[in-house]
Each structure stands twice: as C-alpha cells, then as structure tokens.
UniProtKB/TrEMBL annotation:
The lineage of its organism: Bacteria, Pseudomonadati, Bacteroidota, Bacteroidia, Bacteroidales. It holds the Pfam family NigD_N. Residues 118-231 form the NigD-like C-terminal domain. It comes from Candidatus Cryptobacteroides avistercoris. Residues 37-81 form the NigD-like N-terminal OB domain. This is NigD-like N-terminal domain-containing protein.
C-alpha cells in the first residue's frame, strides 16, 4: 500500500496493529484514523479526486498529482472545506473541497469467475476459514465491495490470497463466494488472528455490471459455511456528520493478494 500522511501523523499510524476478530472499536476525533473509505480516481487531465459514495465526490486542495497508477479504494481522513466552487473540468462537477490528512490504499482487485466446479475452486482459491467483520469498512458502493475480514495466520509476515468468486450459481448472479488461500504459510492454521481489508471491483460480474443493490456472500467461517447479505450503501455524506473512527482493530499492512 502507498500512503499519503502528514509527517506529524506518521508515527501514530505506524503503530496500528492487528488484534482479535469480530469486534470494532469506535474511538473518535483522532485525525490520524480514517473517517472515510473512498475510491481514488484520476481524471483524463490528471486531476485527483475521490468518490466518497455513489453521490458525493471530493476534490483535495493539497494533492495535485496522481498518487496511484490505477483506480483503488483507500482509507482517508479528510477535513471538509465546504462546497467545491472550481471551474468544471472535462464536464466533471465535484461536490466538496477537502484537505487530506491521511490516505492509505486498500488492496483492490477484480472479482474472479468460478472455474466451474467446487473442487476446482477449492484447489485454486482455497478453503481456509475467514470471517467477515461487521464494521463500517465493509460496504457495497461505487461498483466496489469492500470487506473487512478476519483469518488465521501462521506467520503474519506471510502473504495469503483472498478472492471474490462469482458465477457459482448461474441462477443467482448476486451470489458470490469469499475465498481464503494461505498459500505458502506452512504454519497455518495457528492461534494468530488478524484482521485486514480488501476491495473487489464488481463491474464485470454478469447480470450485475456494478450496480447491484445487494450481494449475497457465501464463505467458510470459523464455525462452518455462512451466507450474509450486504446491501448497497445509501447513507450518503452529510457535511459535519463524518467522524474519525479507530482502525486499531485492523492491520493496514496485512500481506494479502
């Protein structure tokens, strides 16, 4: 992940570590904690802006050049400077002018199509348990599914693979599977739980094309197979309503691909 953090905040963010699963802290008013998950976008002319939700775009006053080489989801802490009053650019109109205090990219990847059978999917994408964490990071918006997840790591330095698999039920395009593959982590499973966040593009899922009002996510949990429904976020931004929230339960550097 590539970070944009004001120097005074860097030491604080560096101390964030993973802890136990399935709980969420809510410490407020720390500007080094995220207060939003956004999509980082770049216009054809090279202007950086952020999609906060399906209806709200943000323009940073302190970032002028692209930070990432592709569109990604990211944690952000921003200060709202009021309505955007700049000139239209490439027929784009933005909503709010913001000052970015912290920006940290989330691993962002495409959803993948099933290989056609449960056995083949098991071999390729793994069967290791994973839990979906019910916190504010987990969301469906702007053609992305962002998931806070919890899994067992034998060695927290080892890379695991998390995938979102679609097409397993041709009659239900909204059913997807979250898969966890520990890869070369030979100490897995072990009594080390870690929480991470990953984002999936859902634009290309047949029958959805990114505008799903919900997704049904099936996964192997610590206690067996579960299916949860995540509805599209319609809780749009209201100025003054966003507060910083602790990411102390989440490892921003958990190695996943």
């Amino acid at each position: 992940m590539k970070r944009f953090i004001l120097p005074i905040l860097a030491a604080a963010v560096a101390g964030i570590m993973a802890t136990s699963c399935l709980k969420d802290s809510d410490y407020e008013n720390y500007s080094f904690y995220p207060n939003a998950v956004v999509t980082v976008k770049t216009s054809d002319a090279g202007a950086v802006y952020f999609q906060l939700d399906d209806e709200t775009t943000l323009v940073p006053e302190n970032i002028k050049k692209p930070i990432y080489d592709k569109e990604v989801r990211a944690f952000m802490n921003f200060s709202d400077k009021g309505p955007w009053t700049g000139a239209n650019e490439e027929s784009l109109e933005f909503d709010r002018l913001v000052y970015v205090n912290m920006l940290d990219s989330i691993r962002t990847k495409d959803a993948v199509v099933t290989l056609g059978s449960t056995g083949a999917d098991d071999d390729k994408f793994g069967t290791a348990p994973v839990e979906i964490v019910d916190n504010w990071y987990t969301s469906l918006e702007d053609n992305y599914l962002t998931v806070a997840f919890c899994g067992y790591w034998g060695d927290p330095r080892e890379t695991h693979e998390i995938n979102l698999v679609y097409g397993t039920d041709p009659s239900n395009p909204y059913l997807v599977e979250l898969r966890h593959n520990p890869l070369e982590d030979t100490r897995h499973p072990a009594d080390v739980q870690a929480i991470g966040v990953i984002a999936f593009r859902i634009d290309d899922i047949p029958g959805i094309e990114g505008r799903a009002d919900h997704l049904d996510i099936r996964y192997v949990s610590f206690t067996g197979t579960k299916t949860v429904t995540i509805k599209r976020n319609t809780n749009y931004y209201a100025p003054g309503a966003v507060k910083s929230k602790s990411s102390g339960e989440v490892s921003l550097d958990l190695p996943v691909k």
